[in-house]
Specification:
The protein has five helices and six strands; from the N terminus they run H-H-H-E-E-H-E-H-E-E-E. The protein is of the alpha+beta class.
């Protein structure tokens, strides 16, 4: 009688290790992401733990953005110094066709998204600051939403944002004449 387990049992045992490794990696990744500060990564970003592990800090995505909407984290910001981030309330994401930022990523931590949008958050109207809510007409942010149908519409002369359609690109905010702006980004 042989000391080796039968072939069926070896296959079963051999399949356990990859499944167990995958399960542990998933739990560790979820825990790491829960503890990391929230960051708005460029379109097509993989999960934060995988992003930090795989990003080479090459800057190709930063250079590929024609609107200069991608920044790199400063050297003192940990974890992730030198990695790309977006701040759509400072510099809007134009959601370029083909997502050149993601297409430029050779390490693969940015993947070209399916479709033509990538959610960065949701803007909302701060009614206490918004001119049409205080009396005068405005409409400066009207017509700027790239979504079809637009997330930002007007009801009775006042802006309203549908949070289900808003991707948080920030294209509406620079048009606001009020400071601080009446449009604020709510993180994901």
């Amino acid at each position: 009688m042989s000391d080796l387990p039968d072939p069926g049992r070896r296959r079963w045992l051999g399949g356990l290790l990859p499944r167990a490794t995958e399960a542990v990696a998933r739990v560790v990744s979820e825990e790491v992401e829960r503890r990391l500060p929230p960051r708005r990564r460029p379109p097509g970003a993989v999960g934060e733990a995988l992003f930090l592990a795989g990003c080479t800090r090459c800057g190709d995505c930063v250079q590929a953005c024609p609107h200069r909407a991608i920044f790199t984290l400063a050297a003192h910001v940990q974890p992730g110094a030198g990695t790309p981030v977006m701040v759509p309330d400072e510099r809007p994401c134009h959601g370029c066709e083909g997502f050149p930022c993601a297409a430029a990523c050779t390490p693969g931590v940015l993947e070209v998204p399916d479709g033509n949008t990538w959610k960065l958050g949701t803007f909302h109207v701060v009614t206490e600051r918004c001119l049409p809510f205080r009396g005068p007409e405005c409409g400066a942010c009207g017509g700027l939403c790239p979504n079809d149908p637009p997330a930002l519409t007007f009801r009775l002369g006042r802006p309203a944002i549908d949070p289900d359609r808003c991707v948080g690109c920030g294209l509406c905010k620079p048009a606001c004449p009020v400071r601080p702006a009446a449009l604020e980004l709510t993180p994901l």
